[in-house]
Every structure is written in structure tokens, then in C-alpha cells.
Amino acid sequence: MQIVIVGAGRVGARLSKVLDLEGHKVIVIDKSAKVFERLGKAFKGTTVEGIGYDLDVLQESGIDRADALVAVTNSDNANVVTALIAKNRFQVPKVIARIYDPLRERLYQTLGIQTFSTTSWAATKINNIITHAEVIRHMSFGNGEVEVVEGEVLPQLANKTLSELSIPGEVQPISVIRNGRAFVPTSGTVLEEKDGVAFTVMTSAVATLKKMLHI
């Protein structure tokens, strides 16, 4: 996916690095070039210096080809204006704006903008909305390289063993939830339809896990 992140603060930088690790094409916009240092030397995406709601800046970022835009500056108004431009002028399919005032959330949602409050959301939650809505991402470790995620067993995986959902060093099943009760499985555990399976997984392998789960 091609994803534009407006704002390279702590949330924006963390989200950008996680998405970049997963192999997405990430473009980060910020009015201060200095904050791009937060992205680190390993970041392979693109940076654009400028105001997020400036049309020229957005066009430079390739907004017309973007699959998603996330506005996470420290200004509610700037985030919402940027989101509205992305949604209404450039028809970006997925648009999310951070807000600091939860009381405005309902108003902004009536405008068709998905919002989140920094008091209750984190970068991994935003990433889940954009790229991996089919799996539940519970937590991450280190700088986001390893995550705990959960997916549901679909009919085509029923009666297969859990070993078929394991990749050494990348994907490791750690728990199965069946009929509301969790247990620690073995490699020979036979899956049942609608089982919930929790995994530790390298962030770069989440897309691979989705393919294994047929989602």
C-alpha cells in the first residue's frame, strides 16, 4: 500500500517505521525537516517538508496515488483539514485524523472522517485499521519488530495441525481460544473452525501470516 503520514511526531514516526518494516510505500510530511531524524537510518520511505494541508505539498507526496492518509500533527484543526482535503479532493480510500479533543469526535465523524484520540489509541491500532483489519494486534515489542496478533480459523484450515501455521523465526503460535477458553497448544494441535489463534510474529511477516490464515 502507498500511505501518506502527515506529522512526524512520536506517533507519526512510530507508525511510519512500522508500516515501512511491513514493506509498504510510506511518505511522511512534516513542516520541520529536523523531525525526520526520528524515522532512523533504516527508514526506506520518502520525506516531504511542508504543511500537510498545502495542495502542492500533498501532490508532491503522491497523494493522488495514495491508498491511505493519516494526519497526526499536534493540531486538531490541521489534521481535520488535511483529512478532508485527502478525502474529498483526492478521493483517498482510507483517511484517519488524530484529535486531542474527544468532544469533537462525533462532529468530525459526521464529515466522514475516521478519528482517534491520543488518550486511547496507539500507532499499532492505526496500522490495524489501515492494513490488517482481519487480525487483532494486541501488542508490540522493541521498536515494533515483533508483535502478538490473533486471527480466526476459517473453514479451509479446520482439521489441519497448528504446525502448518508456523514459520521458524517469523511466526510462532502461542495460544488457542476455543469455545471461550484459552489453552497452550502443541505443534500437533488440530484446529477447529472459529478457533482463535494467537501468534508471536515478526512485523515484516504479518502479511505472510494473513495468507496462511486465508484472510
UniProtKB/TrEMBL annotation:
Which organism was this protein described from? marine sediment metagenome
Q: Which GO terms describe its cellular component?
A: plasma membrane
Which residue range or ranges hold the RCK N-terminal domain?
Answer: 1-118
Domain (RCK C-terminal): residue spans on this chain: 136-215
Q: Provide the GO MF annotations for this entry.
A: potassium ion transmembrane transporter activity
PANTHER family, A to Z: POTASSIUM CHANNEL PROTEIN 2-RELATED-RELATED, TRK SYSTEM POTASSIUM UPTAKE PROTEIN TRKA
Write the record's keywords in alphabetical order, separated by commas: Ion transport, NAD, Potassium, Potassium transport, Transport
Listed InterPro entries: K_uptake_TrkA, NAD(P)-bd_dom_sf, RCK_C, RCK_C_sf, RCK_N, Trk_Ktr_HKT_K-transport
Name listed for the protein in its UniProt record: Trk system potassium uptake protein TrkA
Q: Which PROSITE patterns match?
A: RCK_C, RCK_N
- Keyword NAD included in the entry's annotation: yes
